[in-house]
Design goal:
By secondary structure, the chain is of the alpha+beta class. The protein contains 9 helices and 14 strands. Helix content is 22%, strand content 22%. The radius of gyration is 44 Å and the shape is extended.
């Protein structure tokens, strides 16, 4: 645990923790603190308190002193100089014809550096701009590109509710907001109604999301069954704000009635509960199914009268292609066959495919021979081919 105080440097900016180091300012006092970029002028927003070590970044910077009248006048002088620097930078941007929009200018407390914040659609080559600004102000120049949400935070404005926008009034950090939040809160998905001044989704969508998540976990989704005091029904609407739901229940006269219940009065269906009767039940698949392979009772069986013998179709098996062996497999087969090559000869391969072998007779797939037609001349005997033997592995 460490004792710290919270200091804010900008309106609605992020709160940073500092070590009081024996100085105990109250909330609302102005202090001079030590930061990574030098001394800064800030305002205390939270008094001294103890926080966990995981919430702070060590080592903690210290509070130098409570701001004096001279420090306050110096801060006011820097604010007036920022307006002049803003005007000069705009003129330089127009001179160099750069596609960028200047948003804000900030002087450090000790006037050692000027920071220019701008927005742009892509990368901007502002090297020449920095040189011109450095020749005018004679101090260090820094340009930072920011996003549209940071721009809205710096400029401020009024939201659709008529109040100042949240990021410019009190939000220190931006929270992630998604379109799923707008759907769960039953809001219009019109971008003009759920977008803020920055053109992104409004930050206020995050405020009630935790409550919506907690309530929606207690009941099923719309269209699911639910057990009510009047029986089983189907959920038609969920009101998260009032924590009430509307359920469609079947009556005794086969009509349907919509009733409203509190979420605490209903429960999810269990394994022994009956399913709800729906107004429009699902239609079954009416596609014709293939008949079963079993023989029908009307079809005459074998041996009965009227049974006709259907000619059986002769089937010939397809001969598989010879398998290609790797070098290691080839020598392994060679040793198993006693030095005889495992590669088939052309004549044997042709006989297995049903080609014509020696003797002028055609051979089938199973090795049976078919006689020649009467009067057909005998073909000339094919010269016998020598089978080549691969060299032995011991050679």
């Amino acid at each position: 645990m460490a004792t710290v105080i919270g200091v804010r440097f900008k309106k609605a900016g992020k709160v940073y923790y500092f070590d009081p180091s024996g100085i105990w300012p109250r909330p609302g006092d102005s202090v001079i603190v030590e930061t990574a970029r030098g001394m800064e002028f800030g305002e205390v927003v939270t008094g001294s308190r103890s926080v966990n070590d995981a919430q702070i970044v060590t080592p903690l910077k210290k509070v130098i002193r409570i701001a004096t009248e001279e420090d306050i006048r110096r801060a006011e002088t820097n604010e007036s100089r920022e307006k002049e620097a803003f005007r000069v930078c705009q003129e330089k941007i127009a001179k160099h014809k750069l596609d960028m929009k200047l948003v804000s200018v900030e002087y450090t407390f000790d006037s050692s550096k000027i920071i220019f914040y701008f927005t742009a659609n892509g990368r901007v080559d502002f090297r020449e701009l920095v040189k011109d600004l450095a020749s005018v102000f004679k101090i260090r120049i820094e340009l930072r590109q920011i996003g549209v949400r940071d721009e809205a935070k710096m400029l401020g404005g009024l939201g659709s509710c008529g109040r100042p926008i949240c990021c410019g009034a009190f939000l220190g950090d931006f929270q992630p907001v998604s379109i799923k939040m707008a759907k769960e809160q039953n809001l219009s998905l019109n971008p003009t109604k759920i977008s803020g001044q920055c053109g992104r989704l409004m930050c206020c969508l995050k405020y009630e999301q935790d409550n919506y998540d907690a309530v929606l976990k207690r009941v099923p989704r719309v269209g699911k069954d639910i057990i009510t005091p009047d029986g089983v029904g189907v959920i038609t609407e969920i009101n998260v704000i009032k924590e009430r739901i509307k359920v469609r229940i079947r009556q005794e006269d086969d009509s349907f009635d919509v009733r409203e219940y509190a979420i605490d009065d209903v429960r999810r269906p269990g394994p022994g509960d009956a399913a709800a009767v729906r107004e429009n039940p699902r239609q079954q698949d009416k596609r014709p199914r293939k008949p079963a392979p079993a023989e029908s009772a009307d079809k005459p069986q074998e041996g009965e009268e009227g049974a006709e013998e259907s000619p059986k179709r002769r089937r010939y098996p397809h001969q598989k292609a010879p398998k290609n062996l790797s070098t290691d497999q080839f020598f392994e087969k060679l040793k198993e066959n006693g030095g005889v090559t495992p590669v088939q000869g052309k004549s044997e391969h042709r006989r297995r495919r049903g080609g014509r072998g020696r003797g002028g007779q055609a051979q089938g797939a199973e090795g049976q021979q078919f006689p020649r037609a009467e009067g057909a001349p005998a073909p000339a005997e094919a010269p016998q081919q020598e089978t080549q033997t691969a060299p032995s592995a011991d050679a």
